[in-house]
Amino acid sequence: MYVTEQLGQFTAAIATRTLPPDVVHHAKRALVDWYGALLAGYPMEPTTMVEKALAQELDQGKARLALGRPAATRAAALINGTASHTAEVDDIFREAIYHPGAPTFSAAMAVGHAIGASGDDFLRASIAGYETSTRIGRTMGRAHYQHWHNTGTVGTFGAATAAASLLRLDARQSANALAIAATFAAGLQQAFKMDSLAKPLHSGRAAEAGVTAALMAQQGVTGSLDVFEGEVGLGQSMSDGPDWSHAFDDLSSVYNINAMTFKNHTCCGHTFAPIDGALELQKRHGIRAEDIDSIRIATYSPALAVAGNMQPRTAPEARFSIAYVVATALLHGSVRLAAFSQERLDSPAIRALMERVQLEVEPQLDAAFPRQRAAQVRITLRDGQTFAMLQPTRKGDPDMPLSDEELNEKFRELALPVIGQPRSDELIAALWSIDQSANLDPLAR
């Protein structure tokens, strides 16, 4: 069978498959994390701009935006997909270098509201989207990530799978949905190499494209079923011709949704190991930021390629600056949404400490990417003392996970400024019990 056919069979079967309890629980963890990211990004640019741009598709239809505004299905997928990737707090599957939640849940939510799906169906469809897309991303590999933004490309397949499952497409239709989605997949890394609002649009477009592909397949539109492994297919044109023969051997036996990274900082994930290492050294040795002479960070090369901006001037640029977020962490103790206020961006203290940061590639850590996201951090004080450590992973990674309560705390921190305490409490309870709900109305409210 072609890749599309293998994945089509899995997608069609997920609605009736018996899912292990831990998979359901981890899916709820991912949902709580995604909804916090959705609310945080909803009042931010470019989400507000996209909502205005699509005004003709709003206040109609059965789908819903983050705060309950009615929308046409594809518009809801696009706007929510954009919002949930805007604040840079959404989840990661590290082996695929990919944020699955934003495109997958956004597509599932839009279709789920539109058709009146049950909470259980919604959660199953989202799990399916995570499983198909993470394996596609893992197979496309590091070669794909050299030029492409995986959340825009790979995310299209998570969205298409989730939508196909909710629409109850059969195996053949689901395969065609994925084949069509492959021709829609896009998102260039160059979009966030300089000040730009385009990066979150990749996630929104992936959600919308996946929904569109599934709706078209439902009506009988067909795609090239060999689009992944064909001689000019996705693998050849957007990667280095990966081997697909065993890419899905563990599908249905291993669930990647159990191995998600949930962000503990509100910035690019490539900056996390440096932040964690710097904060740990500060804690261990009582380091004061004003006593620091230099900070040397050695890590894997994509971290420098994506987050090596040494002179960020705007919030989007600062989220992709190791120097900025490490300096912010050492001065303020954390990197939360406040880290990207104009006051912080203009802070002389942060700017001065940034000048003492040195970045370089460490070959062994580079070779371990993407399975491991590590950094060596060395801080030298003005009196000559030097403290160093290897930060082998990131707080929030599967081997150093956030607890359920830590996820709840993160959700509240993101949601409270947008919807307040009573609604936050009501919403988080609805998210944790979504599989028991007859529909998605509790979330829409």
Multimeric state of these chains? single chain
**Count of distinct strands:** 6
Shape: globular
Helix proportion: 40-55%
Number of helices: 20
**Poorly predicted regions:** none
Mean pLDDT: 97
Radius of gyration: 21 Å
Largest sheet: 4 strands, mixed
Q: What share of residues are in beta strands? A: 5-15%
How do the strands of the widest beta sheet line up side by side?
A: 4-3-5-6
Helix/strand order, N-terminal first: HHHEEHHHHHHHHHEHHHHHEHEEHH
**SS content category:** alpha+beta
| Span between termini | 43 Å
If you had to describe this structure to a student in words, what would you say it looks like?
With 445 residues, the chain is an alpha+beta fold. It is 53% helix and 8% strand. Strands 4-3-5-6 form a four-stranded mixed sheet. It has a two-stranded antiparallel sheet with strand order 1-2. Helix 5 packs antiparallel against helix 6 (119-145). The chain is globular, with a radius of gyration of 21 Å.
